[in-house]
Amino acid sequence: MSTHVTAEIASQPDCWRRAAETADREAARLPRRGERVAVVGCGTSYFIARAYAALRESLGAGETDAFPASDRTPLGRGYDRIVALTRSGTTTEVVNLLAGAAGRIPTLVLTGVPDSPAGQLADETVDLAFADERSVVQTRFATTALQLLRAGLGVDLAPAIADAELVLYERLPAVWERRGQFTFLGTGWTVGLADEAALKVREVARAWTESYAAMEYRHGPISISDRTSLVCCLGPAPSGLRDEVESTGALFAADAIDPVAALVRAQRLAVALADRRGLNPDRPRHVSRSVILAGAFRPTVSDATRILRS
């Protein structure tokens, strides 16, 4: 089946090349080394925020926290910058957060629609319109935003791009599509990617998916795995994990490809499962491109001051 999401998944290597170019061009807008940064988003964007925050700290670039914009972000912690990820730029919770931070904490928005409400509220905007999508579910926008931020940390994207091209060319193992339960694991910064992989399979294929930090999976969640399960590790698998997973009867998958390329593989699996189940991946149930809440609270100056002091 030819769908928007299928085409968008296939376009990711090209988008990542443009992300590397954009990161170089927009370097002055990206978080500086040593800054204390909060990264926010909703849904997929929040999972990407978590991955970036953990990666930035692991590389010694500065203290970095990630929060869902849909929850109360502690803006009073003395952040040097807020980075907001929002494909549409219209998500109510992100817009409200930016309004609350206006004039008090410098804000940077990565968005596919720079003239959106979020883009207009931000102090700085990075235009990722080339990675915007027609599909409801996020694939290329999310990975492109992350790759741009990785490039801003000095990561060479060439290996990730090569791995993604390989993942898009390879044939998915047919046995994967016959599994009934899917678990995605990560370590360090790839835990957020594991959460996003599970979300994609859940959104697109309505499949039973779970995600965990790899070491935490051993502390109880492994009990769900059996001969119907596929367990995928994005990034290096901890020593002994394969043997433990396979002892449950589950199929274990892990290799040395770039973890973001491994996420592309999970996106492809989601579409393949949807096709097998007769579902249209462009029309996921109960999901919309942007969550805009009717009658939602929008902070005034006094509201923003109270939040910052809390």
UniProtKB/TrEMBL annotation:
**In its keyword annotation, does this UniProt entry include Kinase?**
no
What CDD domains does UniProt report for this protein, alphabetically? Answer: SIS_GlmS_GlmD_1 (cd05008), SIS_GlmS_GlmD_2 (cd05009)
Give UniProt keywords alphabetically.
Repeat
Signal sequence span is none
In Swiss-Prot or TrEMBL terms, this protein is called SIS domain-containing protein
What GO biological process terms are annotated to this protein in UniProt? carbohydrate derivative metabolic process
Q: Which domain of life is it from?
A: Bacteria
A molecular function (GO) held by this record is: carbohydrate derivative binding
Read off the Pfam families from this record.
Answer: SIS
> PANTHER family from the entry?
GLUCOSAMINE--FRUCTOSE-6-PHOSPHATE AMINOTRANSFERASE, ISOMERIZING
Boundaries of each SIS domain copy? Answer: 27-159
Recorded hits in PROSITE patterns, A to Z, give: SIS
